[in-house]
Amino acid sequence: MRLTRADASHPLTKHRKIASSFRDSSLFEIFTLSCNLLKQASGKNLNLNDESQHGLLMQLLKLAHNCLNFDFIGTSTDESSDDLCTVQIPTSWRSAFLDSSTLQLFFDLYHSIPPSLSPLVLSCLVQIASVRRSLFNNAERAKFLSHLVDGVKRILENPQSLSDPNNYHEFCRLLARLKSNYQLGELVKVENYPEVIRLIANFTVTSLQHWEFAPNSVHYLLSLWQRLAASVPYVKATEPHLLETYTPEVTKAYITSRLESVHIILRDGLEDPLDDTGLVQQQLDQLSTIGRCEYEKTCALLVQLFDQSAQSYQELLQSTNSSAMDIAVQEGRLTWLVYIIGAVIGGRVSFASTDEQDAMDGELVCRVLQLMNLTDSRLAQAGNEKLELAMLSFFEQFRKIYIGDQVQKSSKLYRRLSEVLGLNDETMVLSVFIGKIITNLKYWGRCEPITSKTLQLLNDLSIGYSSVRKLVKLSAVQFMLNNHTSEHFSFLGLNNQSNLSDMRCRTTFYTALGRLLMVDLGE
């Protein structure tokens, strides 16, 4: 249908009315037709090497997908935004989804057609899996979910086609929809749940281990496990969810695969995922929830891996004939570990925490602070930008959870910091923060990413009611208030030229100092 200039000038409400009329009068018939034709095609021995037959099947699948992807209630403003949304199928379509043969059709098609077409089938299944919950009553939904899970199980048992990146990506999206649209309490009641969750866990672990394959798809797998883990405290079903068995496997696979990737990336000159801080942060946000499930196992693993890498790193630094490559590998591994430790500490906000878990956080924090002391002592000779950015990410999470007015100072974390590092109270911990901030501004003044994140940390610290009053009493803060010149902080007068990022850094710096000064004067 050609869109004329007159059509294009219609107001949005008119377009919406036309779309609604089309939905009510014709769309279901078109969807039914596409399904019937697909059934006919699947019943015949099609020669998909024949371009015309291949093209016909592709157009049929696109037609079905477009029907399912229709903006049924006129709320979709951004078609590019994924994901985890609900498909608002009209009630008049109920019959098609109550009939299990519709779902079965697409699963059968997936197994019978080549990888050039099967991603389209999976895209249709993603939409079908996302049908609004209210289309069914409880019994109907349970039956529909059971068929859906059976289909997923069959794909996992015959994973050959998933070696195709497009199939793999769409299948990961399908798995994510299992939890976005259904509750854990519903999933555990599905007959094959124990077997399916085992298969999904194995698939996830294998996917994470092959970190170089389809990295963008990992988001959906981590999203699934994040949602599953977050649901554990609320599930009321008596059937076992088995997440205490499989979640630690996923956590371990993510952590170990990232560490193992470091050497290969450096050796082969590959693109480093750590360069994409947005992607790393997104994955860490997901891992923060996953890792908090069975936290004892997560901590034990992190302590073990951190101690190994830190010891190797220290030995390499003390050795006179260690190679730069070996040092870079250990720094890369420690960078990942510091990021991950920050993330799992930040994940405390998602779960009711116990004293034992706070003590475990203390073990992790002590190790990062000890590493920081080591790396800071070497900054005059050499530093690692990525490791410093990881440290700042860690400090930000640590600040959110353990610094401020809402934190119990009797926390076992503080007890552990006192025993190991002699940091007896929040004031002493704040002095570590300020020490790190001043060190970064001194040595990394010409590195804009580190400078801006360091100043953001200072800015965040200057906002808290109780912490800011403790900060102004520290000699290091008094030094900053009295010596805020480029002589001490090079970023303030970089090349005597002002670019935009320098100006932003200065603004953040003086905003924070202004807050501290106001408190200082008020005191």
TrEMBL record:
Intracellular or extracellular location(s): Cytoplasm; Nucleus
Listed SUPFAM superfamilies: ARM repeat
Principal subcellular localisation of the protein: cytoplasm
GO biological process: protein export from nucleus
Location of the Exportin-7/Ran-binding protein 17 TPR repeats domain: 262-498
Signal peptide stretch: none
InterPro entries in the record: ARM-like, ARM-type_fold, TPR_XPO7/RBP17, XPO4/7-like
GO function term, MF aspect, one: nuclear export signal receptor activity
Organism (species): Anguilla anguilla
Name under which the protein is recorded: Exportin-7/Ran-binding protein 17 TPR repeats domain-containing protein
Sorted UniProt keywords: Cytoplasm, Nucleus, Protein transport, Transport
Cellular component, GO annotation: cytoplasm; nuclear pore
Protein family: Belongs to the exportin family.
